[in-house]
Amino acid sequence: MTKPQEIPEEELRETFxxxxxxxxxxxxxxxxxxxxxxxxxxxxxxxxxxxxxxxALAGSRMTLEGVLIIRADRFRTQDRNRQDARERLQxxxxxxxxxxPPVRRPTKPSRGAKERRLTGKAVRSGIKKMRGRPGDE
Length: 137
Fold this sequence. Notes:
This protein is of the alpha+beta class. Helix content is 36%, strand content 14%. It has a three-stranded antiparallel β-sheet with strand order 1-2-3, with helices on one face.
């Protein structure tokens, strides 16, 4: 397996915003939530294949300009939220770096398989015909 893709610090932009949820007295005073922005389209550290898959995986987290936004506010401290946002970005890039699953090639049944199927249908049909009343024929 290949090593996970490294994203240089210079390509990431972080802004700190006030988080919703628990935090006690600090919730309205401190900006503990992190909004991590990563410009996927302009990033030289990603290969073209990984870039395309990352854009597809990101979904609504991707802006029209090709910037991936990850918001982390699960924790009460800024450091832990920064770490969480970076881990989530790394996981997303690692998922995009995985090769896509192989595509199934459509196959046709062999002549023998077709004959066995038709023989089985004929046998079953005969069994069902025998279930009727004796005077039906």
